[in-house]
Amino acid sequence: MIDISTIDAAMKAAAIEGSAFDLNPEVSLAEQGLDSLDSFNLLLELQDLTGVSVSDDEVEKLSTLSRIIEFFNAASGS
């Protein structure tokens, strides 16, 4: 199961500035200052951590922390 702590660790591993704890989970990452490369690198780190693959179609839908958490937890059966 992933949560904000997992995302925060993935952000650090991807060298993304800031903390997941400072982000609003319901607001898009882009609106909170993360560019598309940051978002992509975050998803790559989470894929590595969880073993869950994210398709190109799904990437576009994973624009908020809430959606990311929901997707990875559903895909991993958590």
From TrEMBL:
It holds the Pfam family PP-binding. Gene3D superfamilies: ACP-like. InterPro entries: ACP-like_sf, PP-bd_ACP. It comes from the Bacteria. Residues 1-76 form the Carrier domain. This is Carrier domain-containing protein.
